[in-house]
Specification:
The complex is a heterodimer. By secondary structure, chain A is mainly α. Chain A has two domains: about 5-165, no CATH class; about 195-250, no CATH class. Chain A contains 13 helices and seven strands. Chain A has helices spanning about 5-20, 40-45, 55-60, 65-75, 80, 85-105, 125, 135, 140-155, 185-195, 215-220, 220-225, 230-240, and strands spanning about 50, 50-55, 130, 140, 200-205, 210, 245-250. In chain A, the strands form three sheets. Chain A has a three-stranded mixed beta sheet with strand order 5-6-7. Chain A has a two-stranded antiparallel sheet with strand order 1-2. Chain A is globular and about 55 Å long. The two termini of chain A are about 35 Å apart. Chain B is mainly alpha-helical. Chain B is rod-shaped and about 65 Å long. The termini of chain B are far apart. The chains are: A mainly alpha, B mainly alpha. Chains A and B meet through α6, α8 and α9 of A and α1 and α2 of B.
Chain lengths: ~260, ~55
């Protein structure tokens, strides 16, 4: 694989700082993707507890391992991708989003919030720092992964319980990688965990009010396009019938999820 | 000195404008609405090649 770890780090730094596309996608050869994502699971298993990330520990002695995993992801090629199952593709893109988000944070650590990265609002999400030459012929941004790829091509609302944008109000970063073979179970589990965390979603049963994460406001159409109302979708994973509940959305806490 | 400052200022404005342009440019529109499941998530020539391989 010609794409070096140093190249990825340079791409992350340059595009996050300056907000332009890098040319880190130049000379790349395809390589196989490990669908168990064992390397990412090993990192997460050591550095994530209760959804919180030990960025300091990762910065100290986990970066080489992370970069090796990112290099593997960036080396994915279309001819192989076509043979993957749908769940392998979904798991791949979710892991791309989460792992490159961690890389971005590490390159600016210590930092109070992902929103402090870059000069302009939303720079962290819009800068194209993820080399993906084989599948996209280009470098892509976190927004490209979330909106341009996952939401658009897969139409699976449970991704919103798995994508972690490094903020406290995000869903918890899972202590293992997503894997195609286990994806349905993992996404259901994430949905229940996210909805069961009173810091992120609360039900006032007496007052019949559902205080929901802003994620449900931002992506309401995704949840409703799954053939249900927002309350019926939430009810499915919170184990409660929410018909007739008033919905209010909570403020989003963008402080770092450490 | 004045010329130097003007040129430096112009270069700064140009660099800032370029950065803003890249940031506010539309993101990758993502894959077209391909009906071929095997190609879902691909973009650019990777998508075109995939669709060709699958008979479209």
């Amino acid at each position: 694989m010609l794409l070096g770890q140093r190249t990825i780090r340079a791409a992350v730094l340059a595009s996050a700082l300056f907000g332009f596309q890098t040319t880190a996608v130049a000379a790349v050869a395809c390589g196989p993707v490990d669908h168990t994502h064992a390397a990412w699971s090993a990192i997460l298993g050591r550095r994530v507890a209760d959804g919180r990330v030990d960025y300091a520990g990762l910065a100290r002695d986990g970066q080489r391992e992370l970069d090796a995993y990112l290099t593997m992801l960036s080396g994915a090629c279309a001819a192989d991708y076509e043979r993957w199952t749908k769940d392998e593709r979904l798991a791949f893109w979710i892991n791309v989003y989460n792992a490159f988000t961690v890389r971005l944070i590490l390159d600016h650590y210590p930092i109070a919030s992902i929103r402090k990265i870059g000069w302009l609002p939303g720079a962290a999400f819009r800068t194209r720092f993820i080399p993906m030459p084989g599948l996209k012929n280009d470098a892509i941004s976190l927004d490209d992964v979330e909106h341009g790829t996952l939401r658009r091509a897969f139409r699976e609302p449970r991704i919103h319980f798995a994508l972690v944008c490094a903020a406290k109000s995000c869903p918890p970063l899972r202590g293992e990688a997503y894997r195609g073979a286990d994806l349905d179970r993992q996404l259901n589990d994430q949905a229940r965990q996210f909805l069961g965390d009173p810091a992120k979603n609360r039900l006032d049963v007496q007052g019949r009010v559902a205080h929901l994460s802003a994620i449900f406001e931002w992506f309401r159409e995704d949840f409703e396009s799954a053939g249900s109302t927002l309350t019926s979708y939430v009810g499915r994973y919170s184990g409660r019938n929410l018909d007739g509940y008033e919905v209010r959305f909570l403020d989003y806490d963008w402080r770092l999820n450490e | 000195m004045k010329t130097f400052l003007m040129l430096t200022g112009l270069a700064g404005v140009l660099a800032f404008g370029t950065a803003c342009f890249r940031l506010f440019a539309p993101s990758d529109p993502g894959p077209a609405e391909t009906r071929i499941e095997a190609c879902a998530g691909l973009s650019g020539t990777a998508l075109t090649d995939c669709e060709r391989r699958h008979g479209h």
